[in-house]
Amino acid sequence: MVKIAIFGVGTVGEAVVKILQENREIIKARAGKEIIPVIGVVKNLNKKRNIELELTDSSREALDRNDIDIVVELMGGIEEPLKIVRKALQLGKPVVTANKALLAYHRYELQDIAGDVAFEYEASVAGGIPIINALRDGLSANHIKSIKGILNGTSNYILTKMIKNGTDFKIALAEAQALGYAEADPTFDIGGFDAGHKLLILSSIAYGIDAKPEDILIEGIEGISSYDIAFAKEFGYSIKLLGIAKIVIDEVELRVHPVMIRDNEMIAKVDGVMNGISVVGDRVGETLYYGAGAGGDATASAVVANLIDIVRHNKKSPMLGFKHPLEVGKLKLKERGKIESKYYLRIPVIDKAGVLAEISRVFGDLDISIEALLQKNINSSSANILIATHQTRERNILRAISKIEALQPVLSRPYMMRIEK
Ligand code: HSE
Fold it and tell me: Which residues contact 151 (CB under 8 A, 6 or more apart)?
């Protein structure tokens, strides 16, 4: 029998206990031993919970118990779980976590401490989709050319509602919160940070890159308006918040931002709270992963799979997938200005003669070629000019935005979105 302690018994923690109890027989058959949750650590002992489990509010009490074989960390936050995970690993106890923020900042430190002790984190990225397993083990023969993922269910739910039903941003967010998908602070979801944390975890496995959230480009979906949606529909695009990791010669691009993407692409069809990830390997080609990226049962499914794996194998593969680091200095993060893409701009202007000529002069001077253009009136005197460009460098488009903002008939800073091929 294997005994586990669960730190943090919220929605996911409760679902882990229920799966272990209700699927006991099949789990025992697959793991070879029974896996029994014996203690849960919670902040509030008085809160009503729907499970039968001994609870304590003392992390120390649970960590000091000699009979605990595996520690499950589902607390959220960074500093407190960091202390607990460090301590558990130092005691030689395997750890399973769903904590993407902890890993976004401390994965290399924790990998060093773990050494040969199992440290698993399947639930930290895309909930129930076994993407860590796929990337770390299933695709380990490949150079990973790119990863493109819809990694945040809340943002995808909001965008889907805005595009398909014309729902207002705030109402769609409230619906996602009511469904239990959003983070405690929803700016983590809509600002792209949650997806950024997940992308960093995936990119460590793919590229051995030790980047922090502050090192990469992260933009959210807050600025998207009905004008952008109208433009996307008119030209056959969908809008998705994508986490993108790709290798371009010897540099790695890591970025999270909304994109316009052709609406016939597979990933454009991932709607609602679902997550979807495309991984392209140099040998296997494109592989696709789809499923529930959040919610108690889906996330707990990944946590329990890690527990079964640990009980079966103890240590299957190195935490981040590399036994030896890649050659030092071989792969670098690409600077933002050097990213190449097509771009969409929404430019609010006073609707009068000559405005378009002034704007197109800026594009011409910077050698940016326009691919499509649409005007949508705001009222009788102002309008949004909506422009899609051909491929250019991000540095050029940022210069164009500053120059256009300074033009007299332009009412405010243009809104920019990248168009993903
Ligand atoms: N808030 C996250 C989402 C949940 O909306 O996808 C799981 O990380």
Answer: 125, 126, 194, 195, 198, 199, 241, 243, 256, 275, 277, 293
